[in-house]
Amino acid sequence: METIAPFTLHTSKEETNNFCDSLYERFSTGVAYEIMSNANETVGKLCECIDVAVLTNNDSRIRNVLQDLFSSVGFKAIIVSNEEGFCKPDERIFLKAIEAAGGKELPRDQIMHIGDSYTNDFLPATSLGLNALLLSPDGHNSCKQSQTISSIDQVFQFL
């Protein structure tokens, strides 16, 4: 086993705190993120014809990020793990998302979950009877047992 020696920053506590605060603020807006090509247009089209909810393992800053990145999109619901007290792959957060999106009235096989993790997205969604797509732009997350797409606009092929 190899041990990595701790490193020392030669900054004051105040400088370190300022840096951390600045970093936290930067990741509170869309400026620190880059979305996939066609994502805004595709998600906008999806929201025009079906109810779309966001289910994310994140904290409440993601609401501002989504507003910045998808300002013209009307999500039915945004389910944030930090606010719910449990995260993917826990089935409770999937059930919360289904309920928040109005999916209690729909048969589960008419609900589609799209995620980028086989373990945290695809497996729990399918175990609950949902349709699921694994988003893997570079092919690294693809799996023989999953329906994989490399671009978000490919979702229309599965609706």
UniProtKB/TrEMBL annotation:
Gene3D superfamilies: HAD superfamily/HAD-like. It comes from the Eukaryota. It holds the Pfam family Hydrolase. PANTHER family: HALOACID DEHALOGENASE-LIKE HYDROLASE DOMAIN-CONTAINING PROTEIN 3 (PTHR46191:SF2), PTHR46191. This is HDHD3.
